[in-house]
Specification:
One of its GO terms (cellular component) is lysosome. One of its GO terms (biological process) is glycoside catabolic process. Keywords: Glycosidase, Hydrolase, Signal. Alpha-L-fucosidase is responsible for hydrolyzing the alpha-1,6-linked fucose joined to the reducing-end N-acetylglucosamine of the carbohydrate moieties of glycoproteins. GO terms for molecular function: alpha-L-fucosidase activity. The protein folds into two domains: 2-392, TIM Barrel, CATH 3.20.20.80; 403-482, Sandwich (Immunoglobulin-like). The longest helix is centred in the middle third of the chain and has 18 residues, at 266-283. Strand 2 (121-127), helix 8 (153-163) and strand 3 (167-172) form a beta-alpha-beta unit. An eight-stranded antiparallel β-sheet has the order 8-9-10-15-12-13-14-11, covered by helices on one side. The chain has a seven-stranded parallel β-sheet with strand order 5-4-3-2-1-7-6. It has helices at 2-12, 18-23, 46-52, 67-70, 77-86, 95-101, 107-116, 153-163, 188-193, 200-215, 230-243, 258-263, 266-283, 341-353, 373-389; strands at 25-29, 121-127, 167-172, 219-222, 248-249, 317-321, 356-362, 403-405, 411-417, 420-426, 433-436, 444-447, 453-459, 462-467, 476-482. It is globular. By secondary structure, the chain is α/β, with parallel strands linked by helices.
Length: 483
């Protein structure tokens, strides 16, 4: 126990690497056998699924990557879709067509698109809840023979991403693996209690160590929870940091303990589900606002999912989300299902001003390894805005305040860097003069989009900005003030 506490103290004494603090924008990739059916109910967000239909919510979420579980629950849209299109075919049959689609894959083209979008790091899902490994793992799955890809997707993408000048990270589903626990999951209690025991903890530990040894990822991104007790987990972190001194780990490593053990008892699980269901009902509309994982004893950053913090956070965080309601490819998504590029950029600006990054997901198709056009268009929009305004984003830190407002009602966000403060006005600026309420700031102002001067003048408690010419950027006008 003393050794575990000492290891934890050493982990927590470590400082966050500058590269991750500076990077701000990463790309998440959910890709696998689930992209062959590419189907999930289009009923709103994951939060709405739990609010509307808690008793089978895990099988009703909009995440296509949860398809294998959803088709096990009779009467769900996914089960009906599977019966209509694939009959009684098992989920495992999707592995072969997924691998066949790899003949079209160009990892260098993907990496180029991510770099041009302004991303500074990429995190690939190496094993999701279906247990399929996207690398030829030497750690054999004792319950699903050959459940890896023959082609080293992880290694090829890592090489392409690094050749493009970006950092590479890996996601691993440590808390869920449906090849080890095949029971259908309906409620959140079912989901939390389903972390496999038996031979799974050793398997997961060996695979994550294999990923570290083979690929030296800059980001180690676990999902849901972790199947071992804290001691082995903290040793894993310590070994990872020795192997990758500037690596970072996320916050989804809730270690096994008595609470999770108790949830394996059906009576306890039913009691917990009643409590959660009642809490969601009390929340009302707020219940659909996404997921914020609990804080744990050690992590480098937190990961709100389809959610964000409304104020500056002392601890680094990373908003993670898809462009539509799903992470994995959904064949039924069209333009109307996606958040607009402007909305995604505004949420990104919000996050950066509050000490956050954005890990924006793409969900490629499986049949041709292509990134949907709707997603590519949004990546290009990010790239165009960041090329003009990146100095207000990259390498910055939160200022004394994150939020402001103009006299005409536009939102303003602030970031800081040595010797300067950046103001980002969200939305179209209709005039060459703009007043920001309750802001005292002086210095030499420059509009980042074109380098033109911006005059700053106090107007009582407010600050007036006067631009040399009209502001044409409808997403956000960024001004850097040398102070």
């Amino acid at each position: 126990m003393a050794s575990t506490a000492r290891t934890l103290a050493e982990l927590n004494a470590r400082t966050l690497p500058d590269w991750y603090q500076d990077a701000k924008f990463g790309i998440f990739i959910h890709w696998g056998a689930f992209a062959i059916p590419g189907f999930a109910p289009r009923l709103g967000s994951i939060g709405e699924a739990f609010a509307r239909d808690y008793d089978r919510a895990v099988a009703m979420v909009p995440y296509t990557e949860w398809y294998w579980n959803a088709i096990k629950v009779p009467g769900t849209p996914s089960a009906e879709f599977h019966r209509a299109h694939y009959g009684d075919a098992p989920y495992e049959d999707f592995k072969q067509p997924f691998e066949a689609g790899l003949e079209h894959w160009d990892p260098a083209a993907w990496a180029e698109a991510f770099r041009d979008a302004g991303a500074r790091y990429v995190v690939l899902v190496t094993k999701h809840h279906d247990g399929l490994c996207l690398w030829p793992s030497q750690i054999a799955n004792p319950h699903q023979a050959g459940w890896t890809t023959g082609r080293d997707i992880v290694g090829e993408l890592a090489a392409a991403v690094r050749a493009a000048g970006l950092r590479f990270g890996v996601y691993y589903s440590g808390g869920i693996d449906w090849t080890f626990n095949r029971r259908p999951l309906r409620t959140l209690g079912d989901f939390i209690a389903s972390t496999p025991g038996g031979d799974y903890p050793a398997y997961a530990m060996a695979q994550v160590r294999e990923l570290i040894d083979r690929y030296e990822p800059s980001v180690l991104w676990n999902d849901i929870s972790w199947p071992t007790r804290p001691g082995p987990l903290y040793r894993l972190f310590a070994d990872y940091y020795r192997a990758v001194p500037d690596g970072v780990v996320n916050d989804r490593w809730v270690a096994a303990g008595l609470q999770r053990d108790l949830l394996r008892i059906p009576l306890v699980r039913r009691y917990v589900d009643r409590k959660i269901k009642a809490a969601i009902a009390r929340q009302g509309p707020d219940a659909s606002q996404g997921i914020i994982p609990p804080e744990i004893p050690h992590s480098d950053f937190r990961t709100p999912e389809y959610a964000a913090f409304a104020e500056i956070q002392e601890k680094k965080w990373e908003a993670t989300r898809g462009m539509s309601h799903s992470f994995g490819f959904n064949r039924n998504d069209d333009e109307s299902d996606y958040s607009s590029a402007d909305t995604l950029l505004h949420d990104f600006i919000d996050a950066v001003s509050r000490n956050g990054n954005l890990l924006l997901n793409i969900g490629p198709r499986a049949t041709d390894a292509g990134i949907p056009d709707e997603q590519l268009r949004r990546l290009k929009r990010f790239g165009a805005w960041l090329r003009a305004n990146g100095d207000a984003i990259y390498g910055t830190r939160p200022w004394t305040q994150s939020d402001g407002e103009t006299e005409c009602g536009l939102a303003v966000r602030f970031t800081a860097a040595p010797g300067r403060v950046n103001l980002i006005v969200k939305g179209p600026v209709a005039d060459t003069r703009l007043v920001i309420k309750n802001l005292a700031l002086s210095g030499k102002g420059v509009r980042l989009g074109d380098g033109s001067p911006v005059e700053l003048e106090a107007r009582g408690p407010d600050l007036q900005l006067t631009f040399a010419s009209s502001c044409v950027d409808t997403v956000g006008t960024a001004v850097s003030v040398a102070v």
